[in-house]
Amino acid sequence: MTSFEAARLEFGDKMRRIREQGGLDGKDLASRLGWHPSKISKIERGKQTATDSDLIDLLDALAVPDADSEQLRQELRELRLKQLTWRRQLRAGHRDRQRQDLVDEQTATRIRIIELMAVPGPLQTGRYARAVFATQADLLEVPASDIDEATAVRMQRQQVLYDASKTIDILVAEAALAHPPCAPAEMVEQVDRLVSATSLPTVRFGLLPAYRPLPHLLPHGFWIVDDVVSIEKVTGEDRETDPEQVAVYERLADRLWSVALTGDEARAALLAIGRRWAELARHGQ
């Protein structure tokens, strides 16, 4: 959790305590303000930053004394400054973010990865990773000067795969191998890396094959690192820490594994995909 996320969670928790002291539940407060109840929930759980007008409305509805109101306004101003700093850090390049992920994964005891449209970082080859960073830098208009360093850190992160003290599940959809960020010859190398992963004794690897019904439609992939769910979006990342919500993702992961290919079946499917990329490479596509 970043310092900004921690500060937003603390601010939300303070707003929750004020509401409870006023004898209101979330639905009552939302009704009084004309808001959807989920907005109250997101602010209090640190999933959404309140705007200045949001806070004014909340303070009025909760009849917060002037002195306390001014303190909360100041805390919100500081929180919004932290948010701007956090966004600037994200736009500064990829290296520092990779270093933070490295720390998170080294200290974790359990990692579950579900990826739909990309090979997950722990199994990427260097050339695949570099291509991913380059496309992200271009779209987000962030510096590309640290791509080599970011790639090196991502490769360093892969040491976690050989740590027998951790439980690691990696489930990749076949679609992730059909829309690559790199050339066919590089995809041959990448698929071969996945074939090797099927034999890693410290990792459970699975492949979600195309044309197979899924137990639930998937709007996005996700990671579960210990008790935190991370959902990567185009412009950032959401983190879910509420135990009930995390449990839903755990349940979804279990159901997806129930239809996955593993072991020899996964290897056979990957080898077939590799042969297709090799054919495309031979034809210069």
Read across the widest sheet, the strand sequence of neighbours is 3-2-1-4-5-6
Q: Tell me the span between the first and last alpha carbons.
A: 42 Å
What name does CATH use for the topology of the largest domain? Endonuclease, Chain A
Structural class call reads: alpha/beta
Arithmetic mean pLDDT: 88
What is the β-strand count?
6
- Please outline the major beta sheet: 6 strands, mixed
Number of domains: 2
User: Treating each run of at least 4 consecutive H or I residues as one helix, how many helices?
Assistant: 11
| Element pattern in H and E | HHHHHHEHHEHEEEEHH
Low-confidence stretches: none
- Categorize the overall geometry: elongated
CATH class bucket of the largest domain: Alpha Beta
- Estimated radius of gyration: 22 Å
CATH architecture classification of the largest domain = 2-Layer Sandwich
State the gist of this model.
Helix content is 55%, strand content 11%.
Which terms summarize this structure?
285 residues; alpha/beta; 434 Repressor (Amino-terminal Domain); Endonuclease, Chain A; 6-stranded mixed sheet; 55% helix
Fold and architecture overview:
The chain is an alpha/beta fold. The chain folds into two domains: 3-90, lambda repressor-like DNA-binding domains (434 Repressor (Amino-terminal Domain), Orthogonal Bundle); 95-282, 2-Layer Sandwich (Endonuclease, Chain A). The protein is 55% helix and 11% strand. The protein is built from eleven helices and six strands. It has helices spanning 3-21, 26-33, 37-44, 52-61, 66-90, 95-107, 126-140, 147-157, 184-197, 243-257, 263-282; strands at residues 110-115, 167-173, 203-208, 222-225, 228-232, 237-240. It has a six-stranded mixed sheet with strand order 3-2-1-4-5-6. A hairpin with a 4-residue loop joins strand 5 and strand 6 (237-240). Helix 2 (26-33) crosses helix 3, helix 4 packs antiparallel against helix 5 (66-90) and helix 7 (126-140) packs across helix 8 (147-157). The longest helix is centred in the N-terminal third of the chain and has 25 residues, at 66-90. It is elongated. The mean pLDDT is 88.
